[in-house]
Structure formats: structure tokens, C-alpha cells
Amino acid sequence: MDLKSLMEGHRGQVNNALNHYFEKKRKDVMEKGSEIAQENYTAMQNYILGNGKRLRGICALLAYEACGGKESEKMVLPSLSVEFFHNSSLILDDVMDEDKERREITAAHELIMRWFDKKYGTPPYSGYLFSNNASRFGVSMSIIATNMLFSLGAQTILDSEFSADKKIRALDVYEKTYRLVNLGQMLDMHYEIEKSIDSEKYLRMAHLKTGVLLGSALKIGAVLAGAPASQLNALDEYAQYSATTFQIQDDILDLTPGSKKGRELGSDLKKGKTTLIILLAKENLPASEWKIIEKVLGNEKANESELQKAMKILHEKGVIERAQTMAAEYNTKGKKALRKAKPEFAQKDLEIFDAFADYLVNRNT
Predict the structure, then answer these.
(1) What CATH superfamily is the domain 1-166?
(2) Helix or strand or coil: residue 105?
(3) Predicted TM-score (pTM) of this structure
(4) DSSP H helical ranges for 207-346
(5) Environment class of residue 131 by beta-carbon count within 10 Å: exposed (0-12), middle (13-18) or buried (19+)?
(6) pLDDT in tens, 304-348
(7) Sequence ranges of the domains in the chain
(8) 283-309 pLDDT, tens digit each
């Protein structure tokens, strides 16, 4: 079976299970007669049941099978844990980035703010953290939604049919991941302000923010299959490199016409995000060309002409190409890491993981 067919099959399993499980647990996040509970539920539902790639859930299933798991149907439920986790982090990410939409889905905080404005208008407000009541309410509800979704993710592991020992080990991976991903989010926000960082620090942040969860998806599947430490370590190292290529490609897509990232072209650049592309540009471009990039960097009011000029320099002066080379190097290292596992993974599973790594670095969405 080719990777595309395999991923589509697993994606369908994850989607069906998410629909069923989220509806089953609806009563846990609802309060009879509560309008805001319904609105916040809808906000969570938009993320969970949206058109996601389900990469993390798929990874959990692939790892379970590669590590000798024999009851694939039983693995579907705990594979949802990383999907709940991922979507909880997206809600928080949208708050931090002040994004109103994600892939044509209204962000949770924006949805709640609109509801608040419609129901309450603009009552007097004298707080110091927010500009008005609606933003305070929307952000607060989003934080609560984030907590609820994370909790639901843990519950899928507890509700699974695996032994108590395996559940505890999987939950240990899940909980540790929560702390590390939040550390990555912390660094990501700090690096928007603290510009004196290098590519090594950026890649460490990217690993924490993206790679750790991908690795945990693989490890949860492996743990529930009863994999030995050597296979767990190999999968973890594979994820570290593969997720780095994912993040680099994400940075490239933000600056590449024709990509289907789901956000405005050059949005990271205009927001002033410190990405690998920006670091490479700063390190390698002559001062005159860097000034053109710097003029757009963090400038939400930059016009289309200025943005196009900056992106043209990044493409034509080899900055994007250098990032692509780095992504390819990490891709190769990730594949080699899998070959360290003892016992060795079956050739068919290595080919699947290799194809998955190639997909991450070559995608256009």
C-alpha cells in the first residue's frame, strides 16, 4: 500500500473516532441551559472536527503497527490523544498570534468575542490587561477550551482497552509533552521580541513547539505496542529531525506564492516572527538587502509592493534555497535514526516512515 492510501485510511479512522468520542463526551463540557457553554463547545468543535491533516494521530497508529502492535482497532482511541492535544495548542497559538482565522475556520477567541459583542454590546471596562470586555472574555474562554481539550486527550488514553501499566506509561509521555510544548510556546513568544538569537536556538524552539508532540505521537503508539527502549529512542530521534523539516517547510510556505498554508502570504514576516528564514537572511544578506527585509519585518502596515520585494530577495538571493538544503539534511538524518533501532524495524515500515518524512519536507499545505 502506498503512503497516500495508508494515510487516507488512517485519517478516516481518526476522523470517525474524533466525531464519535467528542459527541460522547459532549455532556462533560456542557451545562444545561448555559449559552456560553454551548458557544465554547462550538468553538472547540470547529477545531477538532475541522479539515485537519491528522498527522499526529496517524503517527501514533503507524508506530503502533511498526512496533508489533496486533490490535490496530484498539489503538484508534488513544491515537486521538495527540489530536486533542494539538488542537488545544492551536487555540492558544491563535490567541498568542492574535489570528482571527485558521484555515478559514473562525478562531475560538474571535468566535466568542463576536458572541459577546452581539449579546452584551460594549459595557464599561476599566481593566489593565485588555482593551475591552469582549477581548477579555474571548481570551479567557479560549484558555478554558484549551484546558478542556487537553484533558479530553488524556481521557482517551484512560478510556482505552490497554493494560493499566501501558496506560500509565503513555500518560507519562503525554504529560511530559505538555510541559515541553508549552516551553516551546514560551520561547516562540520571547523570540518575537528578543532578536539576538541564532539558528541553533531557533531550531531548539521549533523542536519543542513542533517536534516533541510528533515524537510523543510516535512514542505513545510504540509504548502501547510494548516497544523496547531502543525503538522508542529511534522514533524520538526520527521525530526530532522530521518535525524540524516540517517547521522549516512551514516557514518556507509562508513566503512561497502558490502554497496552501491557509494564511495570508508573508503573514509571519509582517508579524515580525523570528523564523529560520529571517535568521539566515540576517546572517547572509548584504546590509542593503537586509534593510529591505527589515523594513517589512514586524510591519503590519507594509504594502504589497514592499512585501513582494522582500520575498523576491529571499528567493533570488538563495535564502530559501539554503533553508531547503537544511531541511533535506535533517530529513536524511531522521531516516538514518530509524535504522538504529534494535530490534530493527521491518523494511516495509522503514519505507513508510521514509515516505512520511519526505511528505513533511515536500508538502505545500
Answers:
(1) Farnesyl Diphosphate Synthase (1.10.600.10)
(2) strand
(3) 0.91
(4) 212-225, 229-253, 267-271, 276-284, 287-296, 304-316, 319-338
(5) exposed
(6) 999 999 999 999 999 999 999 999 999 999 999 999 999 999 999
(7) 1-166
(8) 899 999 999 999 999 888 889 999 999
